[in-house]
């Protein structure tokens, strides 16, 4: 025992961006590394702080104090000094029984990658989006003027067209190029490697190209939610579990699950067309109507259109937050109408659920294009959200002639590949961390 007390453990310090789609994969990675013997410290912002009681008691959570701007350039600027101070103080305190082996920082947080590197701490960048997104993001500055060729395939980025490239609303192109340039620089100058929440079975060719283009070790460690078997709910909101009993009362593959994730907002007009499209389709549905999801409607749960509740009482269920992974695993779910956030996309892939895609911003167009044109496991809801078109798209995916084929590909090909993904990459990542 006495000998063990003097053993030095290796500690990793993680820093997620404070958004649901970024926190979950970072903490899933933390659980996997912890299970392989590494000690875990999570530095986090006060905004959207993770709840320590939902994670292993051995995890240490350290808030860093910053004023929180939502825009990524400003967020990077605001985080840099507090992250540096927190990491430096961990290095001073940790000397007795723990070495900080490395920092794992969200790949969008170039300022923290740089700060870790400057402090002499090896830093790994965690990409919480896909390999295809990472590549198309780095290619953006060279393609920014392709406006007139929006529908052409982009060489070396097929099946993407210029219109599928990353989009950040409210950010001008120069600012976006500046942000991407900083991410690229930090990746090359400050990161000791890149860790990506994807797996060979779905992105082999993109991963090979990253290997070719980026002279940094890369680790495809996904699907993280599956490999980490995270039993702990990492959601920032409490899910309404009543919808699972509601699903129990439905036949297999009969219900459409509708959710646009944790950030995307739609106009009131689009929201109403979505509602009436669901009504006209006649398909049973479970719809996540999140507080704040309608632009300009404040942080309240948006009111449903007049007469809608009566219309769908018998075959619709509305919740403000769902236990999404359990919902997607439920036999009653036939398809997922999604914004194609990367976590939602991976979760759907892993359950073999076909998708109706409605990408809204950022990487969602890239993911949507993969769903429809690379994997063939989904259909588009259409550029214009209008109730007649919505109803048509919903019925086509749920019960139309092509539905069985799409479902077959989702179920027999993609889901099988996902369940064949192994944690070998995690083992090689741990080995790499130990060597740093
Ligand atoms: C954000 C960006 O929008 C997205 O483009 C990027 O890929 C990741 O960050 P977000 O909107 O949060 O993503 O979507 P997504 O990545 O799909 O993550 C949402 C998470 O919330 C999923 O893990 C999903 O299971 C969970 N969720 C969502 C719930 O648990 N319940 C819900 O009701 C809705």
TrEMBL record:
Pfam family membership, one: UDPGT
Keywords noted in UniProt: Transferase
GO MF annotation list: quercetin 3-O-glucosyltransferase activity; quercetin 7-O-glucosyltransferase activity
Residue ranges of coiled coil: none
UniProt xrefs under CDD domains: GT1_Gtf-like
Family, similarity comment: Belongs to the UDP-glycosyltransferase family.
PANTHER family: GLUCOSYL/GLUCURONOSYL TRANSFERASES, OS07G0241800 PROTEIN
Protein name stated in the entry: Uncharacterized protein
């Amino acid at each position: 025992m006495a000998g063990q007390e003097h053993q030095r453990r290796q500690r990793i310090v993680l820093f997620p961006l404070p958004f649901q789609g970024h926190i979950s994969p970072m903490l899933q990675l933390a659980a996997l590394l912890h299970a392989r013997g590494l000690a875990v410290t999570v530095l986090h912002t006060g905004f959207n702080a993770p709840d320590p009681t939902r994670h292993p008691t051995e995890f240490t959570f350290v808030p860093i104090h910053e004023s929180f701007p939502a825009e990524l350039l400003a967020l990077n600027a605001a985080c840099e000094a507090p992250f540096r101070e927190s990491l430096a103080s961990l290095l001073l305190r940790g000397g007795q029984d723990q070495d900080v082996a490395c920092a794992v920082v969200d790949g969008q947080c170039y300022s923290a990658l740089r700060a870790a590197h400057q402090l002499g701490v090896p830093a790994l960048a965690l990409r919480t989006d896909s390999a295809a997104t990472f590549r198309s993001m780095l290619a953006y500055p060279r393609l920014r003027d392709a406006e007139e060729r929006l529908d052409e395939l982009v060489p070396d980025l097929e099946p993407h067209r210029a219109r599928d490239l990353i989009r950040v609303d409210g950010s001008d192109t120069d600012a976006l190029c500046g942000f991407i340039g900083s991410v690229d620089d930090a990746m090359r100058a400050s990161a000791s490697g890149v860790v990506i929440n994807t797996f060979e079975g779905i992105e082999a060719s993109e991963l090979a190209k990253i290997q070719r283009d980026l002279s940094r070790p890369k680790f495809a460690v996904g699907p993280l939610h599956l490999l980490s078997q995270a039993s702990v709910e990492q959601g920032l909101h409490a899910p309404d579990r009543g919808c699972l009993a509601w699903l129990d009362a439905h036949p297999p593959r009969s219900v459409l699950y509708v959710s646009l994730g944790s950030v995307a907002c739609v106009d009131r007009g689009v929201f109403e067309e979505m509602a009436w499209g669901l009504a006209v389709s006649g398909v049973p549905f479970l719809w996540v109507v999140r507080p704040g999801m309608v632009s300009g409607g404040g942080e309240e749960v948006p009111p449903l259109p007049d007469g809608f509740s009566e219309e769908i009482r018998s075959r619709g269920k509305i919740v403000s937050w769902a236990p999404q992974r359990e919902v997607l695993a439920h036999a009653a779910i036939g398809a997922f109408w999604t914004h194609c956030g990367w976590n939602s996309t991976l979760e759907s892939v892993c359950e073999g659920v076909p998708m109706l895609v409605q990408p809204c911003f950022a990487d969602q167009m890239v993911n949507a294009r993969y769903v429809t044109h690379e994997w063939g496991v989904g259909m588009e809801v259409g550029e214009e959200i209008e109730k007649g078109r919505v109803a048509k798209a919903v019925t086509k995916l749920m019960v139309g002639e092509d539905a069985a084929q799409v479902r077959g590909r989702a179920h027999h090909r993609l889901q099988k590949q996902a369940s064949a993904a192994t944690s070998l990459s995690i083992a090689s990542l741990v080995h790499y961390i130990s060597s740093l």
